[in-house]
Structure formats: C-alpha cells, structure tokens
# Entry
Amino acid sequence: MMSTDDFSVTEHVELTHKAGCNLNDPSLVKTLCEQATDAKGWIEAQIGQGFNLKNNTQGYWYTGGGAGFFAALKQKIYEHPNIELMESYTVFKLLSDNGCQGALAVSSGETFAIQANATVLATGGYAGIYTRHDNPGNPVGAGISLALEAGSIVRDMEFVQFYPLGLAEPSLPTFMAFRPFPREAKVINIRAESVTEKYLDTDDLNEAIGTHRDKFSQAIEAEEQHGPVKLDLTNVNWDHLDHWFSLQFLTRYNFPWQTQPAIISPIAHHTMGGIAVDEFGRTSVKNLYAVGEVASGLHGANRLGSNSLTECLVFGKCVGVHAAEQKSPTVNEINFSKNFTSEKRPGSENLEKLQQACWKHLGLSRHASGLKTMRSVLESLEVQKNSRLESAHQIAVLVALFAEKRKESRGAHFRSDFPNLSDQQNHSLFVEKRDGNIVFVKSPESKSS
Ligand SMILES: Cc1cc2nc3c(=O)[nH]c(=O)nc-3n(C[C@H](O)[C@H](O)[C@H](O)COP(=O)(O)OP(=O)(O)OC[C@H]3O[C@@H](n4cnc5c(N)ncnc54)[C@H](O)[C@@H]3O)c2cc1C
# Structure
C-alpha cells in the first residue's frame, strides 16, 4: 500500500526509524505507516473535508488541513449523539484501584468524579516545562504525571525536540517560523555567515530544518555565544508572496522582514517521551489508554516532521475502537457527582523558576554538572499539591533522571560530556513508581484487557 502517490509505506517506515535513531517501537511505526492512508480517508469521509497533503521531496506525510478542517471536526463532535463534551474541566487524579475506573476533575471550583469503563488520556506533551516553547496552553505533561501515579510505565522522557527557528525578537511573541522558505532565505550569524553552510554543509534552509533539526538547533546555540543569530529574508523576492504561506504568515506580525533580519533562537517544540503504549494505545494499567503526544514509543529518539497529526489520527481511531469495546461489570455508568470531597485542587503557580532551570540544564545540551545542579533546583523548589507546578516538577524530575541515565548523544538528546552514540544504549528506557520512588524497569507489560 502506498502512503501517497510518491511515498511508499516502506519509505515512511524507514524515515520514521531513521529520525528516531532506532528507538522507535517497530509495531507502532508499522501501524502508523500502514494505516495512515485509511485513517486519513476515514476522517475526511466523516468530516466531509480534506487534509492538505505536503507532497515534498523529503517524504513528509500530510499536515493539518487548517482552520476549516478543525472547525468542521469540532462541529461534528458537538452534533454527535454519543459524545457529551465537558469543556473547562481539569483532571487532577485518575481513579485507579485494580485498573483505571475514571478520573477526578475540577471545574469552576467544584470537584467531580467521572467513572468510566475505559479512560483515554490525550493531554499532550511537556514542552511547557521550558522557558521558550511554541505549544499553545503551556502543556506540562499533566497526563504523564497522572498515569505515573496510577501505576503506568513511562518511557524515553529525555527526548525533547527543539525547533531551530523560534522568533526571539523582543518586539514579537515567541512562535515558530515554519518552512518551506524560498531558496534565498538564510540563517546568519553575527558575521553574516550562513549557519547551515558552516555547520551542516548545506545552503538549503528547508533541508536543514527538515532533516537536521537537532544539529541545526545546536549550531544556533553555539553561534549565540558570539551574538544574535538571525533569519535573513532580505534577499527573498517578495513579489512572489502568494507562493509562500510561510512568508504570508510572518507578515501577520509587525516587523520589517523585507529589510531587516530577525533574531531567532531554538524553541522546545515537541516531546517524544511519555506513557508507554501498545498499538491499541493500551498502557500498563488496565482500562487506561493514552494517545497523541502524551503517549510514547512511536517517535523514538526524535520525531519525523509531520508524523504527529498522523499519529493522532491513526492511534486515535485504534484507541477509540478498542476502548469502546471495554465492558467492565464492576464499573458504573458515567456519573458526575458534584462536590466530591477533596482538599486537592489544581492551582496555577508561577512556573518561571522551574522553566528557566529546565531551559538551562535540560535544554538542547545536557552535561553531568548541569544535571546535578538541576537536581538541587528540583529539591529546593516548593511545590503545592495538585498544581500545574507539581506536574511540571514531576516531569522535570523524569527528564533529568532519563537524561542522566542516557550517557550518550542520540536523536534529540545531546550530552556534551558524551557526544557520541553508544552501542550499549541502543534501547529505550522505562520507569514506573514503586512505593513513591521512581525506578527504572525493563520494559512494559500491557495489563489492559
Ligand atoms: C506550532 C506547532 C506546529 C505544529 N505543526 C505540526 C505539523 O505541521 N504536523 C504535525 O504532524 N504536527 C505538528 N505539530 C505537532 C502536533 O500539533 C502535536 O503533536 C499534536 O497537536 C498533539 O496533539 P494532542 O492531542 O496529543 O495534544 P494537544 O493538542 O496538546 O491537546 C491536549 C489537550 O489536553 C488538554 N489537557 C491537558 N491536561 C489536561 C488535564 N489535566 N485535564 C483536562 N484536559 C487537559 C489540553 O488543554 C489540550 O486541550 C505542531 C506543533 C506545534 C506546537
């Protein structure tokens, strides 16, 4: 089966494993690549609208279909008779006793118990533990913390993808400048030298962003020691603006792009670590599922660009079908019991100190001494129970532990004191919580039915 007319399943599998430095779970990769076309067709048929295909020569899969697609999807969800939406609820605990039986959530100061035969976590990743990131809503890996507390196995937390071209102009918000750019676009250092030519042996900015995302980010960080690094679009022919959505997007921001290079710096963009799952999204806790960026195993040590939305589609469908089949005689119908007693409420503490420490010590480049400092920062931080800070803190502890354990550089994880790949570490790392302590374990064993 072909993934697109000019991009085969075999190529998609190979590229995904190559990007993930062979830490990907082969069964997840196989499922993704074999089912991508069908899942895309299925969702398009449901919604009555198509995705935009990104048919470029690097073999990337399709990207989001834009606002229209998501508006239509949302409308479909609102109209579906079997879906009851509970918006503005924050889940702060999973009900887990011999498997997962639902969750506790808070909304407008009230706490609710939601019982369920099957619980699916789709709470996103943890790029929000870093000062500079481009994820909407500041995600701090809440779902991963909840699942860990409930007994789930968590994997590969050291792997955080940084995107090289994050805007860092003081007058502009932090956002990603996405490709493709016209050929004349360059990233330049303080001496106006091309950073891609100097470090990556290519003058093709699109190739550098597509295939060398981690090395390109490290190159920018190295150049920043001497002065700001800039995206230079001054040689681009702006008469052809209608061909380049990337440029049209930039012009929404008030900056003289045509005459002045703009300061850029890497940003945390995507997180590969998370809850260990199988191809049905089953976690190691019975009746608990995970899908999307909260789940881990598909991308290995780094994510192939554009595989995430495909992941959400393919595994969203697998998980939905499987979870819907779960019938547990011990669990009641979904039931909202108002004012469920709990002193624990999610708060909204200032995460700044933690984010800065994560940026400095768990960012693009890690080193034993920085990881040691990080540990003392984490120990000294006062954390309020069931707050966003508690989730962020738990995730930072995990990233630090995994980064310490992986004494090599692989994919998105770079250790300046261990800059090479190690054959001995050609495997994923897994943890679980036992008696309140995080311990490394061999590999997950699915306990879901
Ligand atoms: C700027 C940008 C551009 C990207 N471009 C692409 C692209 O072109 N192609 C591609 O494939 N991927 C792309 N990605 C990656 C992709 O968008 C994400 O990986 C994907 O959207 C993750 O989806 P998700 O459903 O797992 O998580 P999210 O979309 O993050 O959704 C998680 C949801 O869970 C909610 N939530 C979290 N915690 C709780 C809680 N405790 N209780 C209740 N709700 C909670 C959040 O509020 C949020 O609504 C991009 C990402 C970014 C940031």
